[in-house]
Design a protein that fits this description.
Layout lengths: L6 E5 L6 H14 L7 E5 L5 H8 L4 E5 L16 H6 L4 E4 L2 H6 L4 H13 L3 E6 L3 H5 L3 H12 L11 E5 L13 H18 L2 H6 L1 E5 L4 H8 L6 E4 L6 H8 L2
Helix pairs in contact: 1-2, 1-11, 5-7, 7-8, 10-11
The chain binds phosphoenolpyruvate.
Length: about 250
């Protein structure tokens, strides 16, 4: 484990009604009440954000959204801006999740616009990257990640990226039960720090938090967190149950 402060983030995806979200958030806030050494974030669906904010406000749990649109406002039916997320109580947002890239056509270029909108509005941004199984098999993992980082963080300087967190999520490990080994994840995280040092500078590369995501559970979090360059986790399926997620938080 590093000296960077751990962050455990839960992505609730398209699960839970407002009532279910509020109930899960209530359980979670009480379960993690005594946790002081780890940052905690949950990202419910848009429709649950404001109600969940009423629960987590003043607690150990930060509120995040799963996406945003980069314009401030306008005729963009169905979209939500960074300012709207802030007014709903969000302090964080997840950008570029592989499901958004796969099913909703997000590209490194649109991810870059979204990161700009999020950071300029003061939202902590969890920037997701990751390779597919085919890309890994073709030994393209590092080149794919390098391009995602270069394009996703285009036009920024290191001072802009204080509120940025990178989440390395190999697509083949998301929701599949296949976790990258801690050595595989550590190898990629080391590569990502070098890539960030090359594009920006060494102090940013050393201070930026890099989360691992992909089938994280109570049974594998401690091993992952024992690696020097893994600073936390982005958790999907196992974040839906408050008790299970709290066990991950308390790794
Ligand atoms: C995710 O959605 O970011 C994720 C990592 O999902 P899971 O934990 O279910 O693999």
């Amino acid at each position: 484990m590093s000296n960077r402060r751990p962050l455990i983030a839960g992505n609730w995806k398209m699960y839970k009604t407002c009532e279910e979200s509020v109930e899960a958030a209530q359980k979670l806030t009480s379960l993690v009440d005594g946790v002081t050494d780890t940052d905690i974030m949950i990202a419910p669906t848009f429709t649950s954000l404001f109600s969940v904010y009423g629960v987590v406000k003043g607690s150990r749990v930060d509120l995040g959204a799963q996406n945003l649109y980069w314009e401030e406002e306008g005729a963009f039916t169905g979209e939500i801006s960074a300012g709207m997320l802030k007014s709903a109580g969000c302090s964080s947002v997840i950008i570029g999740h592989s499901e958004r890239r796969q099913y909703f056509g997000e590209t490194d270029e649109t991810v870059n616009k979204k990161i700009k909108a999020a950071l300029s509005c003061g939202l902590k941004t969890v920037f997701c990257i990751g390779e597919s199984e085919a890309q890994r098999d073709l030994n393209l993992t590092f080149s794919v990640l390098d391009k995602q980082v270069q394009t996703g963080l285009k036009d920024f300087v290191s001072d802009d990226l204080r509120d940025l967190v990178v989440a390395y999520e190999p697509i083949w490990a998301i929701g599949t039960g296949k976790t990258a080994t801690s050595e595989q994840a550590q190898e990629v995280h080391t590569f990502l720090r070098a890539s960030i040092a090359k594009q920006f500078d060494e102090p940013l590369a050393q201070s930026i938090r890099i989360l691992y995501g992909g089938s994280v559970k109570p049974g594998n979090i401690a091993e992952l967190m024992s690696m020097h360059d893994i600073d936390g986790a982005l958790v999907g399926g196992a974040s839906l149950d408050a008790e299970t997620f709290s066990q991950i938080v308390k790794f």
